[in-house]
Design brief:
The structure holds 2 protein chains of 2 kinds. By secondary structure, chain A is an all-alpha fold. Chain A contains 15 helices and no strands. Classes of the chains: A mainly alpha, B alpha/beta. At the A-B interface, helix 1 and helix 6 of A face helix 2 and helix 3 of B.
């Protein structure tokens, strides 16, 4: 496993691409942190005249959803393309160790990327007395989030020999994971006005997702097509089906089940856990959440590669 | 060392391997022969545990490939069809990685590195980037990674494909040096390649095993079957009529000159059988009033046997080759039984690397061309006396002048289409 880890890490730093990704990430994060104001703090850095890392941590999940797939895309896809895959799969090393070696190399690279942005807190320390608690918590949150995204990327990289495809698929899933938290408000609203439609969405979307996944792993095009067709049909059909209109003066209250569903979405929302840890509250719930995402996707990766032997 | 028992592999509904069984012993070099898409690579992938078979079992060094893949992987060195190289590494680092990945480290790794670098002649290229190596050196690096842990079993998938003749010879010599204490399987689609180093051949086609035997077995078979070339004016229906002649195994139609029919018969019963068939063909043509332009018996090369197997034509089992030395014609026929081919022959056989070459390759022409290039044809049959050059024999008996011989050789090289009267007519 160490041999694989070393080889992969070299792969990152031997090529200019690795250094390029780090450089681009640091510059992007710095610029966005200074120019954006997603947290509504009253304008960008120049207007506000005050420096804080809140913008940095605020935008990190979205930036990571794009940058981390670029780190993970080569992990397996490159081997799949150049026949070293055959060598790796016939080495006397269990596949899970090969996958883990690759994953840890990616994680080390991710840590290097984050280390590159340490210039920011150092700058803060130069100007004044920053509150180190949130800065520390924020970096831990970033690392955990990145680790989870990296596992997603590792899994998708193992499904294809096309790096670009691995990148886009991983990016979509990561953006989806981040977006799910933002979707909660919308779904809560929907659950109040059209509870049946909301319930259908909540139940069918994960099933369709699983079918699409099975289709991409098992290379069964029919399953994928059926999943998309079924998804379109069911999810649009619920809107044709008339529900009793809600009286304007009577706001419906969510049923206990509805509340539970919305709460569950909060639990699987990456963003909520990220914010909790970022606030400096390192709680077990969040750690378990990110750790289970990592374990799930690394296992999926191993399983998908092993299942190729029997296809 | 390797036992393969009835392995079948489906890719979806496509049957890539159909009930293939064979054994390879220690010290044996098995040439795994067949055209592209015959199932060679699939078999190797099953043996290396890269994929699992749909049915059947295989054991490598006593371990089952399905039940104990880890144990199998520790004991094999595998060169896939495309060498598994990381282009961004230098050769030395790459080989060190391959060693570490197989559990070598410290002085053991250093010592094995030195050994494989010496064996594969990579010393000058250790500091080169893998992506900048020539094809031959890439192939050697691929072989070096397969050897780094000194495996008991070596599985090489087309180790010589795309290499130039010098590189092919080097790889061949390397396999020859390694054969002592290992069990080696290598695949190729070029017959000469396989006969040059393999002690045994397994021929597969369309996922099925069509032949399994030593080179000598196949050579003996080659001397039992003979070819007879027939060129007749008109000759409609002759092909069907000849099929019924006793001693004829198969009849093939070839491109004739305008107005003629050119057929190639495969006969059993050695040279005597071929001669009997010639007489019958002559009688048949005379009774039907067909003008016979050429009727020439000739020996079959291994290449002919090989092509016949790939086309699924019958061949007689290994039979009484002993009768051959008694027959004067047989010695001439036997000169075309190619045992170990010469470098020149291999060079001329290179076009066979293309997939479409199977039907156009003319082994007789290759042998003749090789001879004209100054190579001597060795015969691998100890029972046969040294075969004389048929031209030299003719010259010694006073039948031909030196100028005649030169003209005849030129004519054979040109392979012209003008009808000429052959020996048997």
């Amino acid at each position: 496993m160490i041999a694989i880890f070393r080889r992969e890490l070299r792969g990152y730093f031997d090529s200019l691409m690795g250094v390029g990704i780090i450089g681009a990430f640091v510059v992007l994060m710095m610029l966005l942190s200074l120019l954006l104001d997603p947290m509504g703090q009253g304008g960008d850095w120049f207007k506000r005249g005050e420096l804080s890392m809140r913008t940095f941590f605020g935008i990190f999940p979205w930036v990571a959803a794009v940058v981390v797939p670029a780190v993970s895309m080569r992990l397996w896809a490159e081997d799949r393309r150049q026949a070293t895959f055959e060598m790796l799969m016939t080495l006397p090393i269990p596949t899970w160790q090969v996958a883990l070696g690759k994953y840890l190399a990616g994680l080390t690279f991710l840590a290097a990327m984050l280390a590159g942005t340490l210039a920011f807190p150092l700058m803060l320390a130069n100007f004044g007395q920053p509150d180190w608690g949130p800065v520390f918590g924020g970096y831990i949150a970033c690392f955990l989030l990145g680790a989870a995204f990296l596992a997603v990327g590792l899994f998708l990289s193992g499904l294809t020999e096309n790096q670009a495809l691995a990148f886009f698929a991983a990016m979509l899933i990561c953006l989806g994971l981040v977006g799910l938290g933002e979707m909660r408000g919308f779904l809560g609203e929907l659950a109040r006005s059209r509870p049946n439609a909301a319930m259908v969405h909540v139940v069918t979307v994960p099933i369709i997702g699983l079918m699409l996944l099975a289709a991409s792993v098992g290379r069964d095009k029919a399953v994928g097509a059926a999943a998309i067709a079924m998804g379109l049909l069911v999810n649009s059909a619920v809107y044709l089906w008339e529900e009793a209109p809600v009286a304007a003066d009577k706001v419906r209250v969510l049923s206990p089940q509805g509340e539970a569903v919305v709460a569950a979405m909060g639990q699987v929302s990456v963003l909520d856990h990220f914010r909790e840890i970022e606030r400096g509250v390192v709680y077990t719930n969040g750690l378990v959440f990110f750790a289970s995402l990592v374990v799930l996707f690394v296992l999926l990766n191993v399983w998908s590669l092993e299942s190729r032997r029997h296809s | 060392m390797i036992e393969v028992r009835g392995i079948t592999k489906y890719y979806g509904t496509f049957k890539a391997l159909d009930d293939v069984s064979f054994d390879v012993a220690k010290g044996e070099v098995l040439g795994f022969l067949g055209p592209n898409g015959a199932g060679k690579s699939t078999t190797m992938k099953v043996l290396t545990t890269y994929i699992s078979a749909s049915q059947g079992t295989a054991r490598v060094a006593g371990f089952d490939v399905h039940a104990q893949p880890h144990e199998v992987r520790r004991r094999i060195g595998y060169l896939p069809e495309t060498p598994p190289l990381y282009g961004d590494m230098i050769v030395e680092d790459y080989l060190a990685f391959a060693g570490r990945a197989r559990g070598l480290n410290g002085p053991t790794l250093k010592q094995r590195l030195d050994v494989v670098v010496a064996e594969t002649g990579l010393a000058r290229k250790l500091k080169s980037r893998v992506s900048e190596l020539s094809k031959g050196f890439k192939q050697r690096t691929g072989i070096a990674q397969a050897l780094i842990h000194d495996p008991e079993v070596l599985i090489l998938d087309e180790p010589t494909s795309g290499l130039d003749p010098m590189q092919i010879i080097e790889i061949r010599n390397l396999i020859d040096r390694l054969r002592k204490d290992k069990c080696i399987i290598f695949s190729t689609h070029i017959l000469q390649e396989a006969t040059a180093v393999a002690s045994r051949l397994v021929i597969v086609n369309g996922g099925r095993k069509v032949a399994d035997g030593t080179v000598d077995d196949l050579a003996r078979q080659a001397s039992d079957n003979q070819k007879v070339r027939v060129l007749a004016r008109g000759g409609d229906g002759l092909q069907d009529a000849l099929r019924t002649v006793a001693g004829v195994l198969s009849v093939d139609r070839h491109n004739p000159p305008q107005g003629y029919t050119r057929l190639e018969l495969v006969t059993s019963g050695g040279a005597l059988g071929a001669r009997a068939v010639c007489e019958k063909v002559f009688e048949l043509c005379r009774s039907r009033g067909i003008a016979l332009a050429e009727l020439a018996p000739q020996g079959m090369t291994l290449e002919d046997i090989f092509l016949q197997m790939l086309r699924g034509k019958p061949t007689t089992p290994v039979a009484d080759a002993q009768q051959l030395p008694d027959d004067p014609d047989a010695t001439a026929a036997a000169t075309r039984v190619v045992g170990k081919p010469t470098e020149a022959e291999n060079y001329s056989a290179m076009p066979a690397a293309s997939e479409t070459a199977w039907d156009v390759i003319d082994a007789g022409a290759i042998t003749e061309k090789a001879r004209s290039m100054g190579a001597k044809t060795e015969t691998d049959l100890p029972a046969l006396p040294d075969a004389p050059d048929p031209f030299a024999t003719a010259a010694a008996s006073g039948g031909m002048s030196a100028a005649d011989i030169a003209a005849a050789k030129r004519a054979m090289e040109k392979k012209d289409d003008t009808p000429k009267t052959g020996g048997g007519a």
